[in-house]
Amino acid sequence: MSPTPRAAALLAAAAALALVVPVPFAVVAVIVVLAAAAVDATSVRADPVASRRLSGVLARGVPTPIEVVTTAPGVGRARVRQPVPPDFTVEPAEADDRLEAVVTAHRRGRHPVADPAVRLTGPLGLGRWSHGGRGFTEVVVYPDLPAARRLAQAVRQGTLAAEGRRIRGPLGLGTEFESVREYVADDDVRRINWRATSRLGRPMTNQYRVDQHRDVVCLVDTGRLMAAPLGDRSRLDAALDAVTAVAVVADEVGDRCGVVAFDIEIRRDVRPRRAGARAVLEGVFDLEPRPVDSDYELAFTAVARSKRSFVLLITDLLEESAARPLLEAVPILARKHVVAVATVADPGIAALVTVPPATAFATYAAGAAHDVLDNRAAVTARLARAGAEVVEAAPDAFSAACVRTYLRAKNRGRL
User: Fold this and answer.
1) 70, 50 in Cβ contact below 8 A?
2) Tens of pLDDT along 217-249?
């Protein structure tokens, strides 16, 4: 229970009466105002009925509507507020009677969301009573699943562009004839249709439906380097968004998908399975980076004895000395599997080398950024020579880049 600003103003006015009327009259006026405020607050003491509509599953960084409707007993006025955890934002945070807002979760995992709080003001406007906020509802925050589904839809519709042409997901080298189309640079020359080429006067190639039920394994580094911030997310956030996208697309094209999350130990190990996107998502959505160096050899051992697979390793590439364990392990893995190493490009580093420095500090920062990029280029070149394809893209384009790499390997018949 608490007085309203109107009650506080009346109390101040009653106290000021002591300057112009006898003190007993001023004391009586104060008592009357306090009594009226207490009666007014007591009239709205009964708990209101508040109902909330909020999905129990959110996606990190994706705004989700929330609605709170309250029914106040009696004739009081209601002010509704939705408390949220520190890693959430809600806009607007409160409203009169009915709250229609948008809530955004900025951190994956399981989070308790408190019940709505309702503050009722009495009919006289002198007293008010606060209710609610006593219970909690658990909300699960996944990686960016809506973006993954949009990529899967683009694959299904044949509109996912890559390197100037479209990738159609399940079409490519295989055993079941599908169609004849124009030859493009990535096509296998063994599939050229010489009769159609001769008749039409331009290179034509046979297109086959790729055998399904291939294995896709995502290796996710959860060590200290993956805690680096990238705008509104961390490297691990971007990595898990990409893993989710690859898993959803693998479901779309009929492949089996699994995931291994590691640092100095194997933290999660979800074996490839049909329709595996849900298992992958449930297995890694609540992972957080740990302040340890990652053991690449341990991670590769977890998949080395698996059947031939597309292995997507998502990590951070540093200078050659720090990446030596990775460089030593990739050639062994590439003998059996199709290996891609993906890393998120840091827009901040790119800006340092593209914007002319205006101060001495900016000059030193630009020099350091050039060193980082040069070291990464050296690691990328060595990985390519070891048989791995290297993927690097900005955070917003990273998931799509990983999906394109996976589909390219599939279309070329490498799986």
Assistant:
1) yes
2) 999 999 998 998 988 899 999 999 999 999 999
Question: pLDDT (tens digit, 9 = 90+) per residue, 321-335?
Answer: 667 778 888 887 888
Element (H, E) at 29: helix 23-42
Nearest to 115 by CA among 78, 66, 75: 66
Angle at which helices 347-354 and 360-385 cross, to 10°: 120
Which domains, from first to last, does the chain contain?
1-141 (2.60.40.10), 145-170+212-411 (3.40.50.410), 177-209 (no CATH)
Contact (CB, 8 A) for 88 and 104: yes
Identify the helix (H) or strand (E) that includes residue 220: strand 215-221
**Joined tokens for residue 389:** 């394809």
pTM across the whole model:
0.77
Q: What is the pLDDT of residues 19-32, one digit of tens each?
A: 666 667 666 666 76
Decide if 344 contacts 230 (C-beta within 8 A): yes
